[in-house]
């Protein structure tokens, strides 16, 4: 993530001559000193992003006193600032009804009468509680706010063992008790927890539970990917209600098993594609990976790796994620998610359909994200710019801007919403920047200053000079 407190990277739009090399003073804020890195860590510089390296300033394993998660999982999953609700989702696969799944969602009622709803979609490994900082600002401004837990996250799970009779040694291990038996439980034969199921869940949720006529879909990371895919796949009646899609560091890809229609020969080389039962070799692989990732110390290190906040993410979020992973079907769901084939539509294809339907798009990207680097934001904008689109870049901000820089994200969302769907009685706000490079600042509650800049298509050169501010942060770190 950053090289350091001694290396300073420009925040403003600056162009450097091709013949010159940027000079970085050794005093100032922002990153991590090269002098403080071990020799082994220094070797990572060539292969790692500037953002990824910020994680090295924190210990590789975080040792803290942690609360017992026994009997407290449901309490930890409850989001603050919104009411928890449950839905018995009668999901169907190929039109065949199956045993209902319990879906949890949070709702914050609008404080001002309106007919506009914002539906928030979370990323992988988190749940509706990740949007606690958005519930009050958006509902206070006159928007009803919903946040659903995708099946296999938060409090959205099957209520029975989907493949009973698993190995004895797993039956007492939290997170691994369900789903590893020799056959699927009746009614769950077609259940594959993954993007196809989530897309159907989102569309059905909007149809059945979102009473407002106008709907804004917003998502971070995997949630942004699903927002685009779900909108592109909805029935004409449902998509007609979608008035906007906001993408917050949306991941532009998901899954590693090829799509059957796009690459049938390679698709057939994979013997298992998520349907129950889970083969023994997949079970062992998934359990090893799952148990490594779900450790609270590992979770905290990983979250610190993708944040730009020098204070890190704290201990509570890792605890909540680890508690979610204790669900009896956790490891089985993880195995299915990992082995689910790619969707029929790519991210770009789905985004193209959204734009073709004349749905406005907001791209809101943290610049210091080590995974979804600025290239991906600019690439998404290239597709979205054929329609109505705004591309804003936040800096410093990492992979989950709504969590680490919530004041800036809320201000951007509210300005965009007010321009598109003003609510009578809400406080007036400034307009979003209209010119490329125009910016404004937002102060977070801890006094961090976040620069919000309007971006456009990538501009590697301007008038014979390198457009330094357009380069990904990891490239800047090489100089």
UniProtKB/TrEMBL annotation:
Residues 118-411 form the AB hydrolase-1 domain. Keywords: Hydrolase. The keyword Hydrolase applies. One of its GO terms (molecular function) is hydrolase activity. This is Chloroplastic (Pheophytin pheophorbide hydrolase) (Protein CO-REGULATED WITH NYE1). InterPro entries: AB_hydrolase_1 (IPR000073), AB_hydrolase_fold (IPR029058), PPH_chloroplastic (IPR044211). It comes from the Eukaryota. Pfam families: Abhydrolase_6. It comes from Durusdinium trenchii.
């Amino acid at each position: 993530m950053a090289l350091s407190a001694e290396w300073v990277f420009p925040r403003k739009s600056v162009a450097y001559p091709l013949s010159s090399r940027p000079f970085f003073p050794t005093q100032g804020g922002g990153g991590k000193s090269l002098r403080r890195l071990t020799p082994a860590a220094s070797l990572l510089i060539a292969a790692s992003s500037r953002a990824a390296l910020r994680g090295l300033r924190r210990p590789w394993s975080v040792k803290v006193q942690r609360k017992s998660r026994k009997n407290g999982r449901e309490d930890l999953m409850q989001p603050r600032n919104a009411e928890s609700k449950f839905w018995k989702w009668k999901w169907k696969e190929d039109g065949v009804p199956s045993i209902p799944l319990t879906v949890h969602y949070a709702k914050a009622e609008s404080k001002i009468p309106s007919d506009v709803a914002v539906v928030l979609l979370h990323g992988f490994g988190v749940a509706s509680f990740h949007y606690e900082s958005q519930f009050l600002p958006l509902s206070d401004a006159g928007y009803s706010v919903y946040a659903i837990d995708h099946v296999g996250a938060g409090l959205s799970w099957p209520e029975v063992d989907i493949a009973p009779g698993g190995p004895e040694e797993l039956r007492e291990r939290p997170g691994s008790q369900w789903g590893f038996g020799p056959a699927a439980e009746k009614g769950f034969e077609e259940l594959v927890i993954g993007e196809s199921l989530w897309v159907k869940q989102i569309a059905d949720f909007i149809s059945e539970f979102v009473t407002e006529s106008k709907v804004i879909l917003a998502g971070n990371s995997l949630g942004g990917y699903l927002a685009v895919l779900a909108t592109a796949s909805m029935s004409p009646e449902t998509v007609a209600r979608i008035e906007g899609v906001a993408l917050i560091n949306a991941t532009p890809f998901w899954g590693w098993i090829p799509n059957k229609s796009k690459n049938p020969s390679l698709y057939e080389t994979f013997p298992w594609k998520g349907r129950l039962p889970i083969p023994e070799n997949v079970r062992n692989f998934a359990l090893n990976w799952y148990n490594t990732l779900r450790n609270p110390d590992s979770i905290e290190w990983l979250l610190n790796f993708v944040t730009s906040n020098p204070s890190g993410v704290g201990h509570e979020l890792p605890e909540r994620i680890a508690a979610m992973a204790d669900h009896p079907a956790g490891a089985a769901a993880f195995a299915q998610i990992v082995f689910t084939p790619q969707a029929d539509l790519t991210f770009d294809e789905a985004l193209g359909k959204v734009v073709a339907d004349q749905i406005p798009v907001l791209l809101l990207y943290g610049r210091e994200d080590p995974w979804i680097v600025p290239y991906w934001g600019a690439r998404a904008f290239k597709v979205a710019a054929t329609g109505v689109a705004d591309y804003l870049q936040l800096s410093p901000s990492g992979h989950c801007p709504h969590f680490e820089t919530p004041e800036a994200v809320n201000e951007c969302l509210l300005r965009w919403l007010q321009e598109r769907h003003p609510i009578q009685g809400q406080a007036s706000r400034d307009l979003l920047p209209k010119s490329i490079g125009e910016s404004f600042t937002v102060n977070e509650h801890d006094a961090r200053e976040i620069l919000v800049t309007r971006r456009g298509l990538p501009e590697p050169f301007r008038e014979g000079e390198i457009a330094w501010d357009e380069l990904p942060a990891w490239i800047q770190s090489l100089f």
